[in-house]
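User: Quick one: structure for sequence A, then sequence B.

Assistant: Sequence A:
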Amino acid sequence: MRNHYQRILQDSDDRVRRFLEVQILDTTSPFYGGFPKADSLAEPKTAIYRATTMTACLLNPDSRYYLDGELTRRLELALAFVRRSQRPGGYFDLINCNFYSGPDTAFCAKRLIPAYVYLKKVEAGELYAADDARARAAALRPVYEEILRDAAEALCHCGFHTPNHRWAIASVLMMCAVLFDKPACRTAAEAILQEGSDCNADGEYAERSAGNYNRINNDAMIMLAVATGDKTYYEPVLRNLEMMLTYIDPDDSIFTSNSTRWDRGRKIYPREYYLEYLYMGHTCARPDLLDAANEIMRMVDRHHLRSFDCLIQLMLQPALIELEHEGCATPADYHKFYEGSGILRCRRGGWSYTLLNHSPSFLFFQNGDFCLNLRIGASFCEHRNFTPETLEPAAGGYALHQTMTGWYYLPFAEKPATSDWWQMDHTRRQKLYGPDMVFDVTVTEVENGIDVHIRNTGIDRAPLRVELAFDAGCRVETEAFTLDGADGSGVVAKQGTLTASKGDFAIQAGPCFGAHNYTAGKEGSLGRVDGCFTVYLTDYSCFEHTISLRALPSAYDQA
């Protein structure tokens, strides 16, 4: 993909220009040689990421920084800062959270390894370089090696917090076992790997982090396959990359609202998946994955993004630069129910919808880049929102169900040991159960949208609300009113059909209903969705309503 390479090279040069502008050059600073982020913190991990990109440009004859003397000096400062920041025993810190951190040491080492391997191959003549570039590589290689050897020692004895940490640590350990002929690294990696992969049959990892950690896990599995020669490590990567093709919404962003991590609900494009699709498409002879790699680069152009920072990996694998593939696509029409992951993903060209099990934000509808999140508020005993207990196919659509059971404590059978309520062992109390509040929601796909049928039974007279959270900044109107949908605001729509418009896209919802104005719910209820304007449809239990959602073009000229 030579045209991709040229773009990645150009963006890498631009990154290096910026790195040189912000690098800390105050010799009295403890962060001398580091790089401050927006919060002014200068992390060793940030310096490592910057240093590997600087190394790539320094040794790439196509870069405007090729063998640049000032870049060489600045790179040496950055690596010296990294070395000073490395703890005794080889650990790195994540200075706003984790200290003597195995996971962050692994992430640092993961970034260093491709650059180190490249330097080693250039020094040994396994990759061609001019004599002066080879000499420069030979001078840098021992610095990288010192950092990596000490990091590998730390990882032999470290712990972790989250599922993806295990694979980051194990993959780096296994690669270091090969690079440094260090059996202790292999033993430590195998202790982690015996836990088995958490990638399910759907292709979803435990953290369900399509915007970030799925990719981190894939990187680790690829490194394990390369280090061990065991190609079975490619299997979860392939499953996940196939699944990810059904997580791309009509505006090219990734659906992230089922994530359990920081990327939940974030607008993230699949830029960072580019190298995985390219590498796996080439390695496993999968044209569909190469199609996706090409399309991701088009997405980068469409959204005016910088390309993925992977120049050193392409330099290390020149076959990926020379590979040419003309296909360019990701699926624009799909319908996939991932039962194990509790998610339905459906896209029909310019619009899509998503159903989630076990989530109060159980329905998302998107037209172009305009989004709607539907929730049902129900303050009933300790319950605050309809949260599906089941999601399964039904005739012509999908059924979601929850039975909310009320309960009350009964007196202790025997006198308690204390009269202090907070010290009492309330698990010893019996409970009086009932009544129940029951929700059955059926979602059926129709032309240009879906019908959401909500049936509520059980206890009557309870004030309930359907919450339609539209992206803020929209125009909202019915036959009775027109208003601007400001962030954090809301309105009860009592009748008619509602149309919300933003940019070129609109979503129609209705018929509306409003029997009361009780929209806040009891304490503990979910607040309005950040970044949204909320339309409330309200009624008392028991009720039965069908809400039609349709994708329409905006009726307004947005130019």
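Sequence B:
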Amino acid sequence: MAEPLPVAHRWWLGAFLAVSLAVLALCASHPPRWETNDDVGMAMVAHGYGMAASGSPNLIFSNVVWGHTVRLIPSLGGISGYVVATFAVLVAVGTAVLYGLRSLGHGWLLGGSVVVFLLVRPLLLPQFTVNAGLMAVAAVICLNVFAQARQMPVLWLSVGLLFLSAMVRSHECMLVMLVALPLLPWRALARGHAPRWAFAVLALALLAAAWLDWQAYRAPEWKDFNDLNLVRAAFTDFGAGQHLITRPEILDRHGYTANDLALVGNWFFSDPRLADPMALKAMLADVGFLALRTDALASGWEGVRALWQPDLRVSLAAAFLLGLLLPNRKVAATWLLCIAAVFMMGLLGRPGVLRVYVPLMALLTVAPLLFNGGGRHRRRPVVFATVMVAAMVGAWMAVGFWQALQHKDEQARRELDSLPSGSIVVWGAAFPFEAVYPPFSTAAVRERYRLYSLGAFTWVPDTVARQEDQAGRGFVSLLQREEGVAIFASDSHLSWLDVYCSQRLHGVPEQLQTWRAGSQLASRRRCTTVP
């Protein structure tokens, strides 16, 4: 007669099966939708469709190790390796959280409620930064389990989760771990050789991955992208152009106009005269943007106030109530670090970025549960009720938001049927990437468009935009041809383009044809050079 599985093994198996079945059921009844177009772009780059002429592991926002990983995963029923990896990560997070909370003394129902609370929205609206942060949160839970039970598999699981978190989005991993410093079981991790070996392996793996990533991007064909990427974030992410506009003498000195800065700040990099890293750096140095922003403090407080944005209110309320019900100095210190971190992000010009805040709220929610699992705590019924209500309300809100986006996407797809397809230029979010390329889209859907993208990937090797530019068919060249160029863009983008035609190309902007269907707009534009 076969020996029964040890308790820990049964718990692992039960957690994995429960989370896997729940994820499959949710995805089958509510087909996921990417929360932002970042994942769409990286999936295109990884597998060579849409705006990518061929596949590449250089995903820009994630480490090249993660890029190789998703490319090695075989397609399942037409679903790409990038998508399979995305949902495998969420299953791993859910399994680790459920097992971890059970091991810390909480019941299966409370642990399952926490998993529902943390994962319903990321499953319905997956986003790589959120996934990276949630892996770090799961690693913190596992480290506390190891501190109590000294289970070696849990220690190595936490190391694996931290490594993958850093591969998917290193900035978010570092942010979550910085805020989680008071929650880590430092004494337990300092005892024995196993934790030292585990973290030595982690450190070596992270260094090796960083070196591989550096090697992947130091090739000559990446020079143009690298040079621009070092400075463009100040304009696209941190609003440097708004400050430079108030200093016209600096613009005149470097040969830029307010319209030029509007173009650069909205991801127009097709003209090397505008997307000139040296000139952009020189203007930033002249204005002292990073050090002398006059609204820095106000922006910092805006970042803190953004914690109360509608999408975070349930998480914030649940974390606050659990902190009151289960008071702990380590949890209080974590709150202070979190507030300081979001204030600093606002101070630097990035307040209120939801995908960055979601894992921090998840960390604050589970933090009180790390130290109050055992025994008969007199407030356990209230804690359980708080978690249950938060899970139900959070899931209800996530499903409602998902339904609204599904309706919007269905409308966008209907509208696109009457607009051009095939090869077309797309500028920013004017093209409904998330509607056209949902996670579970088929290869036939992915091959409908060949996209010349004006955005972060404009100068990335092996993209359609880069190949066309190198073949003498760059966007600026197409704009000046007699037949013009078809482009998906917003009205404001097209207005900036018309001014660009007049100012930079010394031509006359012409609108040759317009397709408009609901909120979707495509236009064939030409810039006729004046003799």
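The chain has 25 helices and five strands. Residues 380-416 form the longest helix (37 residues).

User: Thanks, that's what I needed.
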